[in-house]
Amino acid sequence: MRLVFTFLFIIAGFLANAQQIPGKVISAITGEPLGYAKITLPQNTPILSKIDGSFQLNLNGKESLKISVSYLGFYTREFTISEENKTVLLQLYPDYEKLNTVYISSPRNPANRLVEKAIKNREINDPRKALGGFEYYSYSKFLIDNDKNPVKLATDSTNSEIATIVNVARAYLSEKVTKHNYSQKQGGKDEVIGLKTAGFKKPIYDVLSLDIYPTSFYEDEYSIFQTEYAGPLAKNAFRNYEYRILDTINTKRPSYLVYFKPKREKVVAGLEGVIYLDTLNYGIQKTEARLIGEIDLEIHEDYEFNTSEKVWLLQKRDIKIRPGSGGKDISVFGGNISLGTIQRRLSISSIFNKDPIDTNLYLDATTANYDYQLNTRPQREETSAKIVVDQKANDRDPSFWNSNRKEPYTSKDEATAIYVDSIIKTRNIERKIEVKKAMANGYYPIAFWDLQLSKIFKYNNFEGIRLGIGGKTNDHLSNKFNIGGYFVYGFGDQKIKYNINTSIYLNKLTGTNLKFGYTKDIKEVASFDYLKAPPKFYLIEPRFVNINFFYNFKQYYAGLEHRITPQLSSEIRFSQTKVFDARDYEFLYNGELYQEYTISTAGISFSWEPFSEYLKTPESSILIERRFPRITAQIDKGFADVADGDFNFLRTGLKLEYTIKRLDLSRTEFILEGNYATGTLPLTHTFYAYPNSSRQEAILKRFSVAGKTSFETMYYNEFYSDRLAMLHMRHQLRPIKFSNFFQPEIVLISRHAIGDIGHMDRHQNIDFKSLDQAYSEVGLEINKIISGFGLSTAYRYGAYHLPGFSQNLAFKFTLNIKF
């Protein structure tokens, strides 16, 4: 029965569009397509050809249709299109006299003057700048139908859910109703009050973040699905775009039709299209933009003039992504997207010579805005989250959707919903998304158990090969707690290490968890771990391989973690740690030598990302856009005579991370970290500057994998400090594109550290230096030479420069792999 329905639907669609005739406008001399040529129809609003010169006419039952085609610098021509035409090619001839009038006798491109005025008038035309505040609602429909012509999203996409849907499911349909409010003091907030997703038991909340950043063309950067392009009305627009006036559109409020095209496409990502600029206030009336390459991305925006506030308000935005004809990669969802195959498959539509673009559509995102309330004081929930999902959003009845759908929900949509539901189940998409999300955090889910991948295999100079198994239970066992741990064995030291822990979920929405655990393992001397450091998964840990100075410990701990706001998380932890077998090291204090001792501590840690954007769902908060700075802080207090503790001390750590991202894909990163300790501190609990070089004489014998925040020329165990400051600066140049598969990245690096240590005589049987003079190294990386592999070199200079050239030089691999 479903096959019969599908066949009837296809035939009905064909008959409904049987009189649609595709065509193209080109130059009769060069054969180049004429994008945005004006096609005038009898008694109808003119239409424009697309960037590639293509258009589509509907005869509407007529035997023929007379049209007029005009383009700046070309003679206007009239054509007659009849139902006998299967496709039409319209050729225009250049009018050199008009071209000379516009471009030779004019001292300056007149389009630039219009764009200058539009940029100057952004303050009065952009509602976010012109109005104190406003509210409105939007209805969005998001469709992916990619099964007939597979398209691959790059594996470096920042959104694993979208990558799975595009690459594996190739089918998705959701609807959303959102209440938006904006004030100049508080910025914008979105509340999702209705959400409907076909096929999934639980909503794919991450998809909601995709249209938070389709900003207007007034912004300096125009974002589409988490990818930023230079804005055609940006402050520096003339650096990135060239402009041309195509026509003047005579409507109730006439507009200039201005064409824009990227100047530096290889340097800065740009769009190509047209803007309709109001002839009175130079505000945006309408936009059309397109990117053509491996995929075809098309954007349409329609605005409506508000007479009371004299501003144009966005009414509808439609974004379509279709298979392209090949060429450059197009970036969306934070990664490149390209065709799995350029060649189109045979289909019913191709047999009947229908326009192949519509039949191969694989993404369509439409948003209609309505019920604007201008110059209001928005009433909003007190939360720092950018998007909030209402508790009832997933349970709205049909009457809610019928009253809020501002775009037709057609019989095709209903059929697609059935199809998507079937695809999601048969291809087990929910499971694939679960696996990808877990692997991004270093786990692989097996039934009720998440296997910890980093515990399976490791190697270092102390343990040799280290094999084991670890993980934690997931919500399939219980959504109120988890039980986890690991069991490993080192073949070099021939010792078993293990951990057992549990987390009790007191409040999932605020991330409030009670934690308990016991660990018997080894740890690097002088390492300092932030409890609230952002989670990182390393399949290969570069520094771990060459470390040779560990201590054994047994630790009991209990803690409470809580997310104060989506941007600010905290953890309190109490622990008792018994330290033993730290090689030959002994700690001299009050005339007594300690080979073994107990450290009892209470600590508190914070992680704060004040400008990052979060999505608040009924279950949790989800990061949707990381912005800098990111600040991590921790204080540990050691107690003597409490829980058998031997020493009193205070350790503090503060790390500041800041990244500057640019449209040309270059980036500059700064990491500033400071550590400070007072009191009685054994060497095991001091600080180091992340050294990453062994003491082998030959450079190639020191060859290893470089780290991101480690000093590549600093030898292990060379310096220890109880006061330490470090600065890491990395500047990545824009990728050098030799081909779609070979785009190496050059990174310039500068690292500096300074510190000191008191009571060096307390630390027995070990030689090391105080870092009381500035340590400096400079480095160069060439990353992604082959897949995620690259090469790195670094050179030590300054106060700790060594006498031999090779002693100051490091040469290593780099490894950049994303999961």
From TrEMBL:
Keywords: Carboxypeptidase, Hydrolase, Protease, Signal. Residues 1-18 form the signal peptide. One of its GO terms (molecular function) is carboxypeptidase activity. The keyword ATP-binding does not apply. It comes from Zunongwangia pacifica. Transmembrane segments: none annotated. The keyword Signal applies. The lineage of its organism: Bacteria, Pseudomonadati, Bacteroidota, Flavobacteriia, Flavobacteriales. InterPro entries: CarboxyPept-like_regulatory, DUF5686. This is DUF5686 and carboxypeptidase regulatory-like domain-containing protein.
